[in-house]
Specification:
The structure holds two protein chains of two kinds.
Chain A lengths: L2 H6 L4 H4 L7 H38 L3 H8 L2 H41 L6 H16 L2 H15 L8 H27 L2 H9 L4 H31 L11 H12 L3 H37 L1
Helix pairs in contact in A: 5-6, 5-8, 5-11, 5-12, 6-8, 7-8, 8-10, 9-10, 10-12, 11-12
Chain B lengths: L5 E10 L2 E11 L4 E5 L6 H8 L7 E6 L2 E2 L7 H7 E4 L11 H11 L5 H14 L15 H13 L5 E5 L7 H16 L4 E4 L3 H7 L2 E6 L2 E6 L1 H4 L6 H15 L1
Parallel strand pairs in B: 3-8, 3-9, 6-7, 7-8
Antiparallel strand pairs in B: 1-2, 1-4, 4-5, 9-10
The chains are: A mainly alpha, B alpha/beta.
The structure holds adenosine-5'-diphosphate and magnesium ion.
């Protein structure tokens, strides 16, 4: 080691600390801490075994367990129909990508309209408020049914009857309202003094929004936006009600042929494959956001 | 006589029923500093915000280089480009590094290229002893350093007039001096300034003119040697006495 160098420059804080050896007291404390640690790990392990083990035992020994596994967890059959469900699931992914892109644009426009103070935009501000209130207040399934069956019923020439397009439209309409609210709350949390500073530098209203307000707002609402993305992925399954062959519908078709529910379980697993990592990632960004806020509070 | 950089005539400003400023008239000639003192709530911040067109006024005239800027037809973005403003709470942009904070307006407002703007920002950072902080984010700087970056940020636009609103009020006493000496340097270099402050010693050093604001009116003004050392108005005397006592505690 560099102990001689350290001794020569002992007035520099960093170097001097390399000479430090923990005191007996500190060594004792470390031993106590590691003992406590070991005991905590042991308690956690034992309690997990007890609780989870009991649950599993109750399930497996229940009288209906055998027939349950046969109808829900027939793995061989499950893998046989898996390609069909996966093919359906690509529709969910496609729908998610299209919807998420459109929702970002419409949601942002709605949020900006609602937070703007320009007098010229007053009627639009009113419309945006009504829009958000209505579509946040109605179950999405109803919107899907209304759009999916209502628009074709109008028999207007030029309007599509494609269920995929209609279903996606309904999802976009609804989620734009959700996302607009999240974005609006983010914009409102940026302190007015940030706007004042930007405007006093001669930035226009739009430049202030683009370079100062939105970047800060988006950072703050990343976790709730990711939450909405997880919900969006799940909710694309609802368009199956219009007859779109997504994962849910594909599973339903297989299931109704065989009177076995394993296809539903396979579809559920496919959704989980996507949503669980995203949820973990959301948690992670949320924790980092909180850390960052705390650090700013200290500074 | 040359036109003052800033001229205010009979300015009046109210928030609802509260009249916050009235009968405000001042001239700020080029290369001079006008310092506003007065109790908290006397209207100093509001006056600076009005000058910078961040708040509208109820009556009166504000002229910059002889041109009325309180005319509702003027483009307020263009006016603000000629004015620099530094706030009590720094208001650096937390999502941008120091150099990005400084170059934002020169790039977006003045249309400088990124390289030009960075070059100029680096020169300013060197001049004010902050060159090692260029790529840091604001939350890594001390309050004094943040406030000096905020000053540099408004200097980058080469303003005609600098507005400073209690730039040391949010700082620990030990950090106050580095910011004040930066302002003193600017004064020596001939920057025209309007300053609101609670630091009487500093006011004495930089002010060409001191205005004492009381409930939205200028009740006494003149050179610091007169207003701060031999005030004639009892309200000024009372205020200075209280500041003095607070300083001794
Ligand atoms: N946006 C506002 N709306 C209503 N009243 C305000 C607003 N800003 C300031 N005021 C009032 O104006 C008065 C002057 O405030 P300010 O200019 O901040 O004083 P100072 O900077 O001297 O402490 C205070 O009474 C304050 O309450
Ligand atoms: Mg103030």
């Amino acid at each position: 080691m560099t102990e001689q160098e350290g001794g020569a420059a002992s007035d520099e804080g960093g170097r001097a600390s390399s000479l430090w050896k923990p005191s007996n007291l500190e060594l004792q404390r470390r031993k106590i801490r590691s003992d406590q640690n070991r005991r905590n790990i042991m308690i956690a392990t034992i309690s997990s075994f007890l609780v989870l083990g009991t649950l599993a035992a109750v399930l497996v020994t229940s009288p209906g367990w055998k027939s349950l596994t046969d109808t829900f967890f027939a793995w061989a059959y499950g893998f046989e129909i898996l390609p069909k469900v996966i093919l359906g699931f690509t529709t969910n992914i496609l729908l998610t990508v299209i919807a998420a892109s459109c929702v970002s644009v419409f949601g942002l426009i709605l949020a900006l309209t609602r937070t703007s103070r320009s007098p010229a935009l007053t009627p639009f501000r009113l419309l945006a408020t009504v829009y958000v209130d209505v579509f946040r207040g109605v179950p999405m399934l109803l919107i899907i049914l209304l759009v999916g069956f209502g628009i074709p019923a109008l028999r207007l020439p030029g309007l599509t009857r494609n269920v995929m397009v209609l279903g996606t439209t309904a999802v976009i309409i609804t989620y734009s309202a959700y996302v607009a609210e999240v974005l609006r709350s983010g914009i409102l949390t940026v302190h007015p003094s940030q706007r004042a500073a930007a405007r006093s530098l001669g930035l226009t209203n739009f430049q202030t929004l683009r370079h100062v307000v939105l970047p800060q707002a988006l950072r703050r609402v990343t976790p709730p936006l990711l939450n909405d993305l997880v919900s969006l992925i799940k909710d694309t399954g609802l368009v199956s009600i219009l007859g779109v062959t997504d994962a849910v519908r594909a599973a339903q078709i297989s299931s109704s042929r065989s009177f076995n529910y394993t296809p539903y379980v396979m579809a559920a697993l496919l959704f989980l494959l996507l949503t669980v990592p995203l949820t973990r990632f959301t948690d992670h960004t949320m924790r980092k956001a909180i850390q960052r806020q705390n650090a700013q509070g200290l500074a | 006589m040359t036109t003052p950089v800033l001229a205010i005539e009979n300015l009046r400003k109210s928030f609802g029923k509260d009249v916050v400023l009235q009968d405000i008239s001042i001239d700020v000639p080029v290369h001079t500093a006008t310092v506003f003192i007065g109790a908290s709530g006397s209207g100093k911040s509001t006056l600076l915000r009005c000058i910078n067109l961040l708040d509208g006024i109820d009556d009166g005239v504000i002229k910059l280089d002889g041109i009325e800027i309180s005319d509702p037809r003027v483009n307020s973005d263009e006016v603000r480009r000629k004015l620099g403003m530094v706030f009590q709470s720094f208001n650096l942009f937390p999502h941008m590094s120091v150099i990005e904070n400084i170059t934002l307006a020169p790039i977006r407002v003045q249309g400088l290229s990124r390289e030009q703007a960075r070059e100029q920002a680096k020169e300013l950072l060197i001049r004010f002893g902050l060159s090692d902080k260029a790529d840091q984010y604001p939350d890594r700087l001390s309050g004094g350093q943040q406030q000096r970056v905020a000053i540099i940020r408004s200097l980058a636009l080469k303003p005609r007039l600098l507005l400073l609103d209690e730039v040391t009020s949010a700082l620990d006493p030990v950090l106050v001096n580095e910011v004040l000496s930066t302002v003193r340097d600017l004064k020596h270099e001939g920057m025209t300034m309007v300053i609101a402050t609670h630091e009487m010693g500093f006011a004495k050093q930089v002010a060409d003119e001191v205005c004492f604001l009381h409930q939205g009116r200028i009740v006494e003004y003149g050179p610091p040697s007169r207003v701060l050392e031999n005030p004639t108005d009892p309200r000024t005397q009372d205020f200075l006495k209280r500041v003095h006592e607070a300083g001794r505690l």
